[in-house]
Structure formats: structure tokens, C-alpha cells
What does this fold into?
Amino acid sequence: MQWIIFMLLLLISSMEMLTQNRWKKQASAGLLENCTGCVLCSEDNGCITCHHRLFLLIWRDGIRQYGMCVHTCPPGYFGVRGLEVNRCTKCRSPSCESCFSRDFCMKCKDKFYLYKGQCFRQCPPGTAAQPGTRECQETCEPGPWSEWSACTHESRTCGCKWGVETRVREVPEAAREEGTACPALLETRRCRMKKHCPGEKTEPKNKGKKRQKKPKTERHTGT
It folds into this structure.
């Protein structure tokens, strides 16, 4: 009886060893197509553990999940390195093509625009869509125009016929910090100046002009 029990135990042990050897061969030699780069691999679920520099990508098909070892994570995922395993983690937003973290997108899919780490089908108010970069850029809305300055010419406010006057408007601090392109912030226009400054003596119009002598009339006497 003991001999029969011993033979049964030996048979079970041999079967377990054969199973483990088969597992190791499949993982190390890459006999399965979906086990490339795996340290541990399942015939039904693919990779379980990857080599140190690779990322473990897991996706689901119904109730089953599959694992694959990849050098770089595919679109819609970002890589997270850990002590035991490096994983490809899915971006939270389905409209995000690549992300820095689960909730911060760096590039959006087609027909979406990126703004502050989020993807929008239409850019939020106060921003404008940039088709080239697929981003929403903040628009600059300056404040109201100031009053026109005094009419001056070379820092003088009088003594010339024509001068220039200016007005300005301020830019919001947020737009200034982000370097947003703004419309004109300064305007100038030509203006008429006071030709004579206050207290300045005016010269008479005929001063300096020589008085013209009346032409002499010559009388001719007849012979």
C-alpha cells in the first residue's frame, strides 16, 4: 500500500515539474508570439512580468485580459516605472492621444484641441483654436483706451504748427505672463499745435520788411 502511495506522489511531482519546465521554456525561448520580452508568461493571458527596461501593457477583451511587453507605450497610454514592474497606464480622457499623467494630456486626438492638459472639441471662451498645433491659445483682450495725451512735437507743446498725440491701453497680467499675442496697445495721430507759446512776444507781420519806395514818375516836356 505504501508503495502505491509513493508511486502516486512521484507521478504527481513529475507532472508538476514538467508543467513548470514547459512554462519556463515558453517564457524564455519566446515560443508563444505574445510572450516576447516576458520573464513570466501565460499561454492564456500573455505576459505577466517583463524584462527590466520594458513596459507591461494590459488590455481587456470582454472578461479576459492579455499582457504584452513593449518598449514604448501606445497612443492613449503613458509609462510608469516601478520597483517590480513598469506598466503602461491608460490616459483617463478617451480623446487624449498621449499624456504625462493619468489626468494631464500632452496631445489630443484629431478633431480635439489641447488646453491646459485637457482636450476640447471646441476651445473654451477667451481662447482661439490653432489648427497647426491643435491647441487653444488664450486671446488678449486689452482694457479700454486712455485719454489722448497732449499734442507735442519733440517734447514741446507749443511753438510748432503740427504735433502728435498718443493713447494707450493696458494688458491683463495673465496674458502678459503667458506671452499671448495682443492687438495694438498704442495709437498715435497728428494734431494741431499752438503756434505761439504763452508769454511769447509776437513779431508784427511787417517787421523786418523794407518799405517799398513809390516809383518816381518822370515827366517829359515837349520840345
